[in-house]
Amino acid sequence: MTEYYIPTGPSETEFVEKRSRFIGHVWRVESEEEARALIEETKKKHYDARHNCWCYLIKDGPVRYSDDGEPQGTAGQPMLNVFEREGVTNVCCVVTRYFGGILLGAGGLVRAYTQSAKDALDAAGISVVRRWVAMEVPCTYAQFEGMRREVDAFGGVVENVDYGADVVLSALLPEERAADFAAHVLDISAGTVEVLEAGEQFKDVPWREKTAQES
């Protein structure tokens, strides 16, 4: 079974540490060329910044990072560590620093670049890419919340709900749990809810929701 994690979408976050502005950017990328283009674009946009530190990880491809003039090991590698810890790939991150006149020291730089990358990833959200079985779950309104909980319990995602005389949940279930889910639902509903398969899909689905940046 192939399963990996990627950013859900692009993001930009910012915080200030001892008058230095740190602006974190995260993007989903499919190639090294795409990552390099985003890095160059950000450098041009923030040409007046002291540093534009970056990293990227491509699935089954290259992993690169740069301190862009910061002391060695204080920016690119700590940023990269954020994504490696979360198991996120196909990602490009640039942290732009506008120097505020106060030196942070090596430890302070590591903490600041780590926080900036983490904030940007949290704002982007994380999606899981894997093979799913699309399933239709027809049920009554009284059964609806229970069925939604069962989808969650089996690691699935409700993509759509059709409200009519009854309710139909369109859900994606991990392929290795789909059959067990259908059997479980049939059992707990005493045979009144029969799950219908609607094909397989290999796609990304939000796994960890985006978080609003705290002010």
Produce the secondary structure layout:
Elements: E1 3-7, E2 11-17, E3 20-28, H1 32-45, E4 51-57, E5 63-66, H2 76-86, E6 91-98, H3 105-124, E7 126-139, H4 141-153, E8 157-163, E9 167-174, H5 178-188, E10 196-208
Antiparallel strand pairs: 1-7, 2-3, 3-6, 4-5, 4-6, 7-9, 7-10, 8-9
Helix pairs in contact: 2-3
List keywords for this structure.
215 residues; 5 helices; five-stranded antiparallel β-sheet; disordered C terminus; alpha+beta
Description:
The structure is a single chain. The chain has 215 residues and is an alpha+beta fold. The protein is built from five helices and ten strands; from the N terminus they run βββαββαβαβαββαβ. The chain has helices at 32-45, 76-86, 105-124, 141-153, 178-188; strands at 3-7, 11-17, 20-28, 51-57, 63-66, 91-98, 126-139, 157-163, 167-174, 196-208. The strands form two sheets. Strands 1, 7, 8, 9 and 10 form a five-stranded antiparallel beta sheet that branches. A hairpin with a 2-residue loop joins strand 2 and strand 3 (20-28). Helix 2 crosses helix 3 (105-124). The chain starts with a strand and ends in a 7-residue tail after the last strand. Residues 211-215 have low confidence and may be disordered.
